[in-house]
User: What shape does this take?
Amino acid sequence: MSTEEKSLHFIEQIIEDSLSNGFPKNKLRFRFPPEPNGYLHIGHAKSICLNFGLGLKYNAPVNLRFDDTNPAKEEQEYVDAIKEDLKWLGFNWTEELYSSDYFQQLYDWAIVMIKNGKAYIDSQSSEDMAVQKGTPTQPGVDGPYRNRSVEENLTLFEGMKNGDFPEGSHVLRAKIDMSSTNMLMRDPLMYRILHRHHHRTGNDWNIYPMYDYAHGESDYIEQISHSICTLEFVMHRELYNWFLDQIYDDSKVRPHQYEFARLNLNYTVMSKRKLLQLVQEKIVNGWDDPRMPTISGLRRRGYTAASIRKFCDSIGVAKRENIIDFSLLEFCLREDLNKKAPRVMAVLDPVKLVITNYPADQEEWLEAENNQEDDSAGFRKVPFSKELYIEREDFLEDAPAKFFRLSLGREVRLKNGYIIKGEHVLKDATGNITEIHVTYDEDSRSGSGSEASQRKVAGTLHWVSIQHALEVEVRLYDRLFIDEAPDSHKEKNFLEFMNPSSLQIVKGFVEPSLETVQSGDKFQFQRLGYFNVDKDSTQGKIVFNKTVGLKDAWEEKGKKEENLLMNTQKEINKYVKEKDENNANLILNSIVENIKSIDNYSLIIQTIVKNIKNDNNSLLFSNLILHHSNKVQVKDMENESLTKLYAMSLKSQMPAVRILAIENIQNDLDHLKLFETQLSEMKNNEKNEKVSYALNNLIF
Assistant: This one.
């Protein structure tokens, strides 16, 4: 096998096998079939890149087909947004098509199926149909209308089409097999009554085909050769093929369905329903809010089409579901912006810096490189004067040894400028620093070639000249959720994991070269991150969005929290061994504060479960986390894990473990009842005074 063949993903290999087995290459045809019921998100980008990528690889047509079979949820706004996203990503479709184009053909085929005894009108309620369909372990039974006559079915179906019946009164079902092990084959719905206005067909139809019926038949009409969808449709494949069996003409291409693993990204939600909820409840500012995982949101935040395509390419096409780290998407973005984005200087948390020995009436225009990663980017001039802004965090009045920024008595370089030395500060009545006074070395200008300019100093600071600075609004965006899997926790609403710091708006100052920026322009604010110009900008007010930081702050935060929990567990050992009660209480207070500081819900749950074992210190740690964390409650834990934790803890030889378990059980009414007998027996036999006190305070 050649190197090229080895690099094929499994969908490409399927296509290669089809061609090897005689399928004509000129018959290859693909499609991207979105439902226009919401905006596309990053998960759709994977499917887009896959389908259009196959079209490019095999020089085959790729249709854009809107599966618009549910007028209750579909709008023209979504159609327009989807087309804009596809074009922005860099893909062009062969034909723009709609399932609604085929409503008459689908209806005609349904008539044929009724006449052939393969479909019937069911007049049961949806509740009765659900009961009649059985369960995954129990076969369904025939409904009371399954054997209606062809004539009656045709009459009712025409009445449904003409609007003679209310919604929910009748449905058309395929007549397949009520005992099938695949519940989708137990007489699935084909049509339902909807008296709704359709964004393309208006009020022409009162019945609309179900997705499972319309999708495969639409593929057949368009002569799609390889119908590629995500893994949740694996069980639908049998039904896809059954519907095709009813209409297939062997002189035409028969579509085949293949499934790949969809994109699952941590720290976000991909459900259109949940994204719509965020929009409707105004938790975000629309579908294109820069915190949203929608393609329009990512675009507005400053993501590039190339970075998204690179991301989709890097995660590959697989058959097995997995979770992709959001950091990989950000890495692809940084890699792209690093090559393209001009470097500029901006200060977002300013403090005034005065160069006391610089002439008050003097200004210079210093040469600054636009992008060291791009030789063609050239240079620009930035103004320098006596009074500058620097970042407040870049100065400490009394700094530790490893502080590599400005402090009193130390030297640093101003980017593209001079070496300065901290001399003294001015403060307001509350003790806040209002001005930092420094001196500069006149011979140390960067790039001058002088001996002084080549002097090594601890660090380099960015700055802007106050006299020349432009005031701008800067929107500091962060991840929308603080948990890596916000919609995966039982008994938890995903909204409970919203990041309260996902948007902060600050006033910043930027160099004057940015005065003529346009919406969508992208820059690296040196030492701060990548930013782009938001569409809300006007001639008198420039608005920047933070796209991504220069480093992965979330990875650092995650590692810090993991390390903090590991170190806290070591503190448990010290606490247990400490003989002095005051010292032990100090250690315990530190442990509790560490537990309270952890935000990562999943990490907390995992740590509790991991420490449910026959080890007193581990049991103590689990009980402490459960008792003191404000991110986790007993209702969030699996019942089996809690039962095991309590059972082991109540038998522990360590009084502290027993006490904490008793206090935790007191807040868990279900387990309080479960352990009532054991706790009552403990009351009678307990020798430890503190444990007895905890037991006596129990209220059953």
